[in-house]
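User: Before I run my own analysis I want an independent prediction to cross-check against. Here's the chain; please return only the structure tokens and, at the end, one sentence I can use as a sanity check.
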Amino acid sequence: MVAIALSLRRPSGEKRRSENMAEFTVSEVIDGDTFKVKNGWKWNEKKGDTVRPTGYNTPEKWNPGYEQAKQRLEDLILGKKMDIKSTKVVDEWGRLVADVYYKGKNLADYFPEYKN
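Assistant: Structure tokens:
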């Protein structure tokens, strides 16, 4: 695990909460466990705008439960501020894989049936 000296880029108005946490606004929900953040992120010389929270895995497109999980995440976080913490890696699809918190609660805790 990487001890974060997060150099996540925060747009003006977005604030850093601690040495290893940054706050971002969700601009789009891709599916039940992937979303985009406004103005993107930068970590370990990599940049992007897509985030994959750790701790849970929802159904993929065309599988039962996909639409419900996507809608649930959208209802929960679209346009809201999220705390991104403990970044793990940028995966092969260019997503920042990290612990994500909404209102102080790990996002995975909102999806107990999909926790891994």
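Sanity check: The longest helix spans residues 66-77.
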